[in-house]
Design goal:
This protein is an alpha+beta fold and 276 residues long. The chain has one domain. It has an 8-stranded antiparallel β-sheet, sandwiched between helices. Helix 7 packs antiparallel against helix 8. One of its GO terms (cellular component) is replication fork.
Length: 276
């Protein structure tokens, strides 16, 4: 009986130590260093592929999963995923009522733009990837010019648990820092670059991001309305043809201003052969 109790105690201790080790690995006990100044991650004018939606912060996870399922692990040096989170009330009243469905209005906390920063345009010229982007309704744009200073935190990325832990610990620390220093910092920008998550909140030129999201959300909704009101052609759906036009017009800018070399994250295990 005594041996059984000792065995159970040892197993419990091993389990607890394993859990603590895992939590430490994913960043639970990492020091959160919040600073303000020049952003070490250069995102200004970078080319992006994106979709926009709205809801709770956690609702954006499905879009991250989707974009990573499109871009395979083989191309992880050619892109970094990102999210821009704009609080609903940062939009003016007219735009809020126009863009946000009445049934989802009360539950909407953020309008979020989720996608990938493209550092090599060959990735979106790949026929399979291009087709999947069109099918899922992704569009192309460029981020606003670099904004400095910003409130900034770098947090380790070692898996999905790092995202969960980071979203709770980092934003809590950032909120305290903003209040203590009486700063106005928004929107929330997250960039997943290799082994790091960059949390960036601009301290100026916030309207550049508001205008970007408002304009692109209007374009996206217009395209969706156009697609739903049109009859599909034998060759392709209206949604695909609309996005084909957008790609043909905008893909030439992809890579022009994206000199940032980055590593991907949350990547799928799929693999495509890169073609010229």
């Amino acid at each position: 009986m005594l041996l059984l109790i000792i065995a159970i105690a040892l197993l419990s201790l091993i389990l607890i130590l394993t859990i603590l080790f895992a939590l430490n690995y994913f960043g639970l006990f990492d020091t959160i260093n919040v600073s303000s100044g020049q952003s070490p991650y250069k995102y200004g004018n970078c080319s992006i592929v994106y979709r926009i939606d709205y809801g709770k912060y956690s609702d954006s996870s499905s879009l991250f999963t989707e974009i990573c399922s499109i871009f395979p692990m083989d191309f992880r040096s050619k892109y970094s995923t990102f999210g821009i989170y704009l609080e609903r009330d940062r939009l003016n009243e007219i735009d809020r009522r126009k863009f946000i469905n009445a049934e989802r209005y009360d539950s909407c906390e953020y309008i979020f733009m989720i996608g990938a920063i493209i550092s090599d345009d060959s990735i979106i010229k790949h026929p399979i990837i291009k087709s999947m982007l069109m099918e899922k309704g992704y569009r192309f744009a460029q981020l606003p010019e670099q904004v400095d200073p910003v409130v900034y935190v770098k947090f380790p990325y070692r898996g999905i648990m790092s995202v969960v832990i980071g979203s709770r610990r980092v934003y809590s620390s950032i909120e305290s820092y903003i209040q203590e220093n009486r700063l106005t910092a928004y929107p929330k920008i997250e960039i997943y670059d290799g082994d790091n998550i960059h949390y960036i909140l601009p301290l100026s030129k916030q309207n550049d991001f508001i205008n970007l999201i408002s304009m692109k959300l209007a374009e996206q909704q217009k395209s969706q309305l156009s697609s739903s009101s049109s009859s599909p052609s034998p060759q392709s759906s209206p949604k695909e043809s609309d996005n084909e036009e957008v790609i043909d017009k905008e893909e030439e800018i992809i890579g022009e201003d994206s000199s940032q070399e980055s590593n991907g994250e949350r990547n799928s295990d799929s693999s495509y052969e890169l073609v010229d």
